[in-house]
Design a protein that fits this description.
By secondary structure, the chain is mostly beta strands. The protein has one domain. The chain contains 1 helix and 5 strands; from the N terminus they run ββββαβ.
C-alpha cells in the first residue's frame, strides 16, 4: 500500500507509444493519499493495450527521484513491478482492456 508521506500519487495509463513518457491517455492525481490501499477509477477508457503506472512523489518536488545507483527513491508501481530487474518494457507491464470494466491491482514499491 501507500506509505505515509507527503506528496501526491500519480496514476496513469499509457499506450505503447506513450510508455515511459510524461504523457498518458488516462490518469488521475490523488493530492493527499492516505496510507494503505488506494483505489482510483478511470472513466471512459477505450479498448486497447495499456500499461498502468503509479508514482508516489513522496517529497512533492514534481521529479521522479532516482538514487546514485539508478534505482527509484520515490514510491512506484507497475503490473508485476516486484519481478522487474531493470527498466521495464511495455510488453512486461501491459494489459489488454476490452469493452468491459477491468480492475487492476498493483503493489507499491519503495526504496527502503
Amino acid at each position: 500500500g501507500v506509505r505515509a508521506a507527503n506528496g501526491p500519487l500519480y496514476v496513469g495509463l499509457q499506450t505503447r507509444e506513450q510508455f515511459m513518457q510524461n504523457a498518458g491517455s488516462y490518469g488521475e492525481i490523488v493530492a493527499s493519499p492516505a496510507p494503505g490501499a488506494v483505489s482510483v477509477t478511470l472513466h471512459g477508457v477505450a479498448p486497447g493495450e495499456y500499461s498502468v503506472s503509479v508514482w508516489h512523489d513522496i517529497d512533492g518536488d514534481g521529479v521522479f527521484d532516482m538514487g546514485p545507483d539508478g534505482k527509484p527513491i520515490d514510491g512506484w508501481a507497475m503490473i508485476d513491478g516486484a519481478s522487474l530487474r531493470g527498466a521495464p518494457t511495455f510488453d512486461q507491464v501491459s494489459f489488454k482492456k476490452e469493452d468491459a470494466s477491468i480492475a487492476i491491482d498493483v503493489d507499491m514499491i519503495y526504496a527502503d
